[in-house]
Design brief:
Blueprint (H helix, E strand, L loop, with lengths): L8 H13 L3 H5 L4 E7 L10 H19 L2 E4 L3 E2 L4 H10 L3 H18 L10 E2 L3 H16 L3 E11 L4 E3 L4 E2 L2 E2 L6 E11 L5 H7 L8 H11 L1 E11 L5 E6 L10 E4 L6 H7 L3 H12 L3 H6 L3 E9 L6 E7 L10 E4 L5 H10 L7 E2 L18 E2 L10 H14 L3 E7 L4 E2 L1 E2 L9 E4 L3 E4 L27 H4 E3 L6 E4 L3 E2 L1 H4 L3 H4 L12 H7 L4 E4 L7 H14 L12 E3 L3 E3 L2 E2 L10 H8 L1 H10 L7 E2 L2 H19 L17 H22 L4 H19 L5 H15 L4 H11 L22 E8 L2 E9 L4 H10 L1 H7 L6 E5 L3 E5 L1
Parallel strand pairs: 1-2, 1-26, 3-4, 12-14, 26-27, 28-30, 31-34
Antiparallel strand pairs: 5-6, 5-9, 7-8, 9-19, 10-11, 10-13, 10-18, 12-15, 13-14, 16-17, 20-25, 21-22, 21-24, 23-24, 28-29, 31-32, 33-34
């Protein structure tokens, strides 16, 4: 065996990467294995990978290699979420076509991922900007259009001036777009929508089945869907003499309604303004509020009295009608009955405009002290509520709803916060929406046999933003598929989140040309067994993917409803207390890291520094520590000689040190197997192997048994292989030979070896370790204490002092207090 003591990461890593890329993962797996679909959220090809990519994809690679060794047939593909606004903006600023920009970036990032040693099924690679991919997406859209799941309408939409396009509700956070630009304003446009609301109840119910998802993500989706059970109630408007329907989840408070508030977007606003004789003031308020961004609108409670009144249908009370900035047209009916005593928002509004506050709910254990200084919003017992007085809130809600329904004044309903998904984007770099507009036939979908509608690649982008497609005559001008008359193509493109809503279904069938999916392959691999990605996609990609899976099921393409069995949401990589970004100047370039330390060091640090779901705080010292550990591992193995024993030597003929060493190996196998395979605590798995190498070093310093030493060293390599595959493969080849490390199964542990006959305990005096003693593992506490006090080093440290007490923690420590 060669005995090079210098660890050369670059030479080793490039050697093994060339070998792995030489044949597919499937060829290396071989045999009949159980299928396991492992997937990390595919990246946007922005130019170069960052440390967030390194962490995310290292997690996936560790799991892929671990599961393969455990006997699974692991599907582990990689692709590119290639459409989207950033490529278009980058192309404009650089004077390069988005297609070339994207293609070049994919080539760069692919090489970087391969340099990290990530072992993907590269033969299944896909890019969403490829017509062979989005042709199927266009077909799905046409089929959704035929079923009423896609439609076009004029609507107020979220508009980002910086991006120059419409945004879905899920892509807006306050007055910011999902890419961090502001302001986001409201704009009336003709838009294409996907009817996600048709699946609201099913999407909500499906959350209960997602036991392998983080509760935080499930809760975020549940809140976003926002199911509200309530009652729609008709109030008669005294002026202008028609009915106004309000929605409430608290029908039990109806007797306490002292005004009605209406959204400024409600179609009744102009009638109210005229009928109430306050047209100028009311319309001016409505126009001002409509122009406000969501943040401004939410900052304060303000309104205007319309001059009109409504009749409460439960008691005949005449109450004023206000326009209010906090009432939203997209929730409920756009009008609400306001009960200041039992809704804090209504209470603050009533205080401002001196509207009466009428208490109709008391706490179950007493009465409210009046005047109120805040609203009582809990359930309780009704008072001053006619025949419903004395009822509990839940009972009263049912009884009042039943009375209103009998009288034709209301009905029980379910409303959702979720709104249909607006997918039209007024940008160039996206999948064309496959419809044409004919003066005679109207909106006509492009026939399946004419798909894909290919996005023109050779275009001149507009410096000021916006899409060049409307001015591209050769793209716009076409013929109607129905009547063959001249027609115009749709020039909006699809939201890039449409592409990422089904890519996981395409991977197993990526080389299929005549259909999007092979049902047998889908049945074999789906749902994805383990999905990995950021929590920021909770109500974006993850919700859309669940919706799209159900749509494709109902269109007959697949038979599953939920796309992802288990979900791991990894934390961010931060430095100096903040997320890495160029603007903060705290970016760490993975290429620089690899050049200096090697890919294995980058991988090891990213797995060891923090649990996967927590943020990883960057540490140069931590990276250096990972590098030192690998160099130490290298020296330990190359100096041990060739032909190291791989098999467990058993206990026959072993001395006490050898038995302890063997037990430590089996304990480590058990810990790492559990930490990676069950708990996904990669940091503690690495820590366990580090402890093992420390134990090996101690064992070597005595009179080691060659069989035990070989078993310990080769097991350490097998356990570390998923984390640092290059250096462990090289060391294995040098010390063992064949079969290759990647062909070895995951080691099993001997349960009996985990039960030690003896145990080593640290002995502390006043919290400071003074000695270590080895005692029988079943020895009682009193006997352990006696042995500790009889130890020579302990006795010397005590110097004749009598202990106040001796505390024994079984299997761990003895603490003597003096």
């Amino acid at each position: 065996m060669t005995t090079e003591k210098n660890y050369d990461p670059e030479a080793i890593e490039t050697k093994w990467q060339a070998r792995w890329l030489g044949r597919s993962r499937r060829e290396r797996g071989g045999g009949e294995r159980r299928p396991f679909y492992l997937l990390e959220m595919f990246p946007y090809p922005s130019g170069r990978i960052h440390m967030g990519h390194v962490r995310n994809y290292t997690i996936g690679d560790v799991l892929a290699r671990f599961l393969t060794a455990r006997g699974w047939d692991v599907l582990h593909p990689m692709g590119w979420d290639a459409f989207g606004l950033p490529a278009e903006q980058a192309a404009i600023s650089r004077g390069i076509a988005p297609a070339k920009w994207t293609s070049d970036n994919i080539a760069t990032m692919r090489a970087q991922l391969q340099r990290m040693g990530f072992d993907y099924d590269w033969d299944l690679e896909l890019a969403t900007c490829d017509p062979s991919y989005y042709r199927w997406e266009q077909l799905f859209f046409v089929q959704m259009l035929e079923r009423g799941l896609a439609y076009r309408k004029s609507a107020k939409v979220n508009w980002c001036d910086t991006c120059g396009t419409v945004l879905a509700n899920e892509q807006v956070n306050g007055d910011e777009c999902w890419r961090g630009h502001r302001p986001v304003t409201q704009k009336e446009l003709d838009q294409w929508f996907l009817r996600i609301t048709a699946y609201a109840e099913e999407l909500l119910a499906g959350l209960d089945t997602l036991t392998g998802w983080p509760e935080k993500v499930v809760t975020m989706q549940r809140n976003w869907i926002g199911r509200s059970e309530g009652v729609e109630i008709d109030f008669d408007l005294v002026e202008p003499g028609e009915r106004l329907r309000v929605f409430t989840t608290r029908a039990d408070t109806l007797f306490g309604a002292t005004f009605v508030s209406v959204a400024v977007e409600h179609p009744v606003v102009e009638k109210l303004a005229r009928a109430g004789g306050r047209e100028q003031e009311v319309l001016a308020f409505a126009e001002r509020v409509r122009a406000q961004d969501p943040i401004e609108r939410a900052e304060g409670k303000e309104g205007v009295f319309t001059g009109c009144h409504a009749i409460n249908p439960i008691n005949g009370a005449r109450v004023p009608v206000y326009l209010a900035n906090f009432v939203l047209m997209e929730y409920g009916t756009g009008a609400v009955m306001a009960v200041p005593a039992h809704d804090q928002r209504d209470f603050e509004f009533a205080q401002r405009y001196e509207i009466p506050v009428v208490v109709v709910i008391d706490p179950p254990d007493g009465t409210l002290a009046e005047p109120l200084d805040h609203a009582f919003e809990e359930d309780g017992v009704l008072r001053d509520s006619g025949r419903f007085t004395g009822m509990g809130s839940a009972e009263a809600r049912r009884a009042i709803a039943e009375q209103l329904e009998r009288e034709g004044r209301g009905k029980s309903v379910v409303h959702y916060r979720l709104r249909d998904w607006g997918i039209s984007r007024q940008r160039y770099w996206g999948a064309p929406i496959p419809v044409v507009y004919c003066d005679d036939c109207g909106i006509v979908p492009v026939p399946a046999e004419d798909l894909p509608v290919v996005l023109p690649v050779d275009v001149q982008l507009l410096e000021g933003g916006g899409s060049p497609l409307p001015a591209l005559e050769e793209f716009v001008s076409t013929t109607c598929p129905k009547c063959q008359a001249p027609a115009r193509r749709e020039t909006d493109t699809m939201d890039t989140f449409v592409e990422s809503s089904w890519y996981f279904l395409r991977f197993p069938c990526a080389r299929l040309d005549d259909a999007p999916f092979d049902k047998a392959e889908i049945a074999k691999w789906l749902p994805v067994d383990q999905y990995i990605g950021g929590v920021e996609h909770a109500v974006l990609h993850l919700l859309y993917a669940r919706f799209f899976t159900r749509v494709l099921r109902d269109l007959g393409w697949i038979e599953l409803s939920e796309p992802f069995e288990r979900l791991l949401t990894q934390g961010m990589v931060i430095k100096d207390g903040a997320k890495m970004s160029k603007s903060r100047g705290n970016v760490v370039d993975p290429d620089d890291l690899i050049r200096r330390y090697g890919a294995d060091t980058a991988r090891l640090f990213s797995m060891f520094a923090a649990p996967p779901e927590k943020d990883l705080d960057w540490s140069d010292r931590g990276v250096e520590g990972a590098s030192r550990f690998l160099a130490r591992l290298w020296r330990m193995v190359v100096t041990a000689g060739e032909g190291l024993q791989v098999d467990d030597p058993g206990t026959e003929g072993l001395d006490e040190a050898g038995r302890r060493m063997r037990s430590l190996v089996h304990e480590t196998i058990a810990r790492v197997t559990r930490d990676v395979g069950e708990r996904m605590r990669f940091n503690t798995a690495v820590a366990a192997v580090m402890e093992l190498t420390n134990g090996i070093a101690d064992y070597r310093s005595g009179d080691p048994d060659a069989r035990v030493l070989g078993f310990a060293l080769t097991t350490a390599l097998r356990l570390l292989f998923p984390f640092v595959p290059h250096v462990t493969s090289e060391l294995w080849e040098k010390s063992v030979g064949t079969p290759l490390l990647e062909e070895m199964p995951w080691p099993d542990y001997d349960a009996e070896a985990l039960v030690r006959d003896t145990v080593e305990l640290a002995v502390q005096i006043n919290g400071k370790v003074r000695s270590r003693i080895t005692v029988p593992s079943d020895l009682d506490r009193e006997a352990v204490a006696e042995l500790a006090l009889a130890d020579e080093r302990v006795a010397a440290a005590l110097g004749g002092k009598k202990p106040k007490r001796t505390v024994v923690v079984p299997g761990r420590i003895v603490n003597i207090v003096v």
